[in-house]
Design goal:
Length: about 325
């Protein structure tokens, strides 16, 4: 049976504040825990007004401290922005504070624009993502006799490490290392099937996993009716439009129609990012979820929801839970 989880980027709505967004993130995590969702992840992005989760490790600790059972982690930390040692220390500390509840998902993109990448000291010419992942895994494992450089805290915590990606690159690396794999089909669905096939075909059992474990990100907008869900999803569509235009991505209020807001090429680009979205009333959501799981066979779905009104965003996850969570493997 598939598990169901939530990815949150602490979205800031138009007219809102960062403080409000962070309060909403904590409220949503507590709500998800009560509903029975399996994990709650946060993602690293920089220089993106509208996303308040840049200090990802700090926010993970805040959310974990405000909850008690749900797993909390990163979806993900953009590893080339950081020293593997520092990330091992951050997540080793989190695991020590909240034992058995912390996940460390890592990606290889900068999670930012070129200006922010330079400020973060990101250098794609020097990037060696497989080496960084190997270092990270070594720092989180028990220290070897005579090891002089130790992540403390971190050493021996064995925080679960996930590889994240939107292409086949991370799928192949995750398979080679025997790690769980999460595909970012919530914004880049085109290579989902190829990535899953490569991951499963190339998977090598390891001390982390004896069989492949795959997760897929899925946009979710559930409402009382299909018509209301189609209206609410226009917030996500407007946000996607602003992203490709290089504009700030504060979550806008929904509109009755997107007509006149985008050109045909823009509409194609935005809608292609939503190819696997689950949008509708309760029965439509149930049918779409069943179809997606039959098609992909993923072990876990991670929902992302850009709904302007926080109460309606919570309600979206309520309706999804009513459709699916009685079948969840906990």
């Amino acid at each position: 049976m598939a598990r169901y989880s939530i990815l949150d980027l602490a979205p800031v709505r138009e007219g809102g504040t960062v403080a409000e967004a962070l309060r909403n993130t904590v409220d949503l995590a507590r709500h998800a825990e009560r509903l029975g969702y399996h994990r709650f992840w946060l993602a690293e992005h920089h220089n993106m007004p509208g996303i308040a989760s840049a200090a990802t490790s700090v926010l993970i600790g805040h959310v974990a401290g405000a909850t008690s059972t749900i797993r909390v982690g990163s979806g993900g930390i953009m590893l080339p922005n950081h020293s593997s040692l520092v990330i091992a220390e951050h997540f080793g500390t989190l695991e020590t504070l909240y034992p058995g509840r912390i996940d460390l998902g890592v990606g290889r993109a900068p999670g930012s624009d070129g200006l922010a990448s330079r400020a973060l000291r990101y250098n794609s010419a020097e990037e060696d993502f497989p080496r960084q992942v190997a270092e990270l895994l070594a720092y989180l494992a028990p220290a070897r006799p005579g090891q002089r450089l130790v992540a403390f805290p971190g050493e021996g915590t064995n925080v679960p490490v996930w590889l994240l990606g939107s292409t086949t690159y991370s799928a192949e690396l995750a398979a080679t290392l025997g790690l769980p794999f999460a595909f970012a089909s919530h914004f880049a669905p085109a290579l989902l099937d190829d990535a899953l096939a490569i991951y499963r075909e190339c998977f090598t059992p390891s001390r982390f996993l004896d069989r492949p474990y795959a997760m897929a990100g899925v946009p979710l907008v559930a409402a009382e009716t299909d018509a209301e869900a189609q209206r609410l999803v226009t917030s996500a569509l407007q946000r996607g439009l602003r992203l490709i235009r290089g504009e700030s991505i504060f979550v806008p209020p929904p509109v009755d129609s997107m007509d006149g807001l985008w050109s045909d090429p823009e509409r194609f680009r935005v809608q292609s990012r939503m190819e696997v979205a689950i949008i509708g009333g309760p029965e439509t959501v149930r049918q779409q979820l069943d179809a997606f799981l039959r098609r992909t066979g993923v072990d876990e779905l991670m929902f992302v929801s850009d709904v302007y009104d926080h109460a309606l965003r919570r309600r979206s996850f309520d309706l999804a839970a009513e459709a699916i969570l009685p079948r969840v493997s906990k």
